[in-house]
């Protein structure tokens, strides 16, 4: 989806993916000591605001002006501070090996861009840092509960294991879950999860 399409989606008064953090992200973050966190394609800010409330120093980015507005409003309501760049993957300016954790939550890309984007996000992670990812697996194409309608943009374990091959203690697995993340992520869904250490 283009930034214009995301702006149209996020222009709604409601938070279209809810204001609670992604459950896998929340559980994974609980096991880590708060430090510097990067959240690409962060949309309306549900994950960044939660992380900031847990003591993380959060940097996020997204191309959507409307998404950023809602994220900053949510941060203000919750009394937390987040840094949020209005930028895409090609424009974002961040220091390499700077973050203790990078988390990609439903940050899908075209098949042509996927590996490059994942490698780029890995470059921002400190050695010893943790990478967290949840997205839709290719089986999600049969569901109407969220995610791209192009199977090439959905993930397989093989693709993710290739993209993140430099991580140690790398774990990837698929699950069928009941999503309850606002009107656009709702119902039975096939997801894929990844966690690893740089």
What do these coordinates show?
The structure is a single chain. This protein has 198 residues and is an alpha/beta fold. Helices cover 29% and strands 29% of the residues. It contains six helices and seven strands; from the N terminus they run ααβαβαββαβαββ. It starts with a helix and ends with a strand. The mean pLDDT is 95.
Number of helices: 6
Helix content: 25-40%
State the distance separating the first and last CA atoms: 30 Å
Q: What percent of residues are in strands?
A: 25-35%
Number of strands: 7
Low-confidence stretches: none
Give a quick summary of the entry.
By secondary structure, the protein is of the alpha/beta class. It contains six helices and seven strands, in the order ααβαβαββαβαββ.
């Amino acid at each position: 989806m283009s930034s214009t399409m995301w702006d149209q989606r996020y222009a709604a008064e409601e938070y279209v993916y809810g204001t609670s953090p992604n459950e896998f992200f929340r559980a994974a973050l609980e096991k880590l000591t708060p430090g510097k966190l990067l959240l690409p394609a962060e949309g309306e800010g549900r994950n960044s605001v939660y992380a900031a409330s847990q003591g993380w120093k959060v940097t996020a980015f997204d191309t959507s002006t409307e998404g950023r507005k809602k994220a900053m409003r949510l941060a203000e309501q919750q009394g937390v501070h987040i840094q949020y760049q209005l930028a895409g993957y090609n424009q974002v300016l961040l220091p390499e090996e700077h973050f203790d954790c990078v988390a990609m939550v439903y940050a899908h890309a075209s098949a042509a861009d996927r590996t490059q984007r994942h490698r780029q996000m890995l470059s921002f992670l400190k050695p010893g840092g943790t990478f967290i990812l949840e997205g839709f697996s290719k089986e999600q194409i049969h569901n109407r509960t969220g995610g791209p309608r192009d199977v090439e943009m959905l993930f397989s374990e093989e693709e993710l294991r290739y993209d993140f091959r430099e991580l140690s203690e790398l774990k990837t697995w698929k699950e069928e879950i009941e999503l309850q993340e606002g009107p656009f992520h709702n119902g039975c869904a096939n997801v894929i999860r990844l966690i690893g250490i740089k």
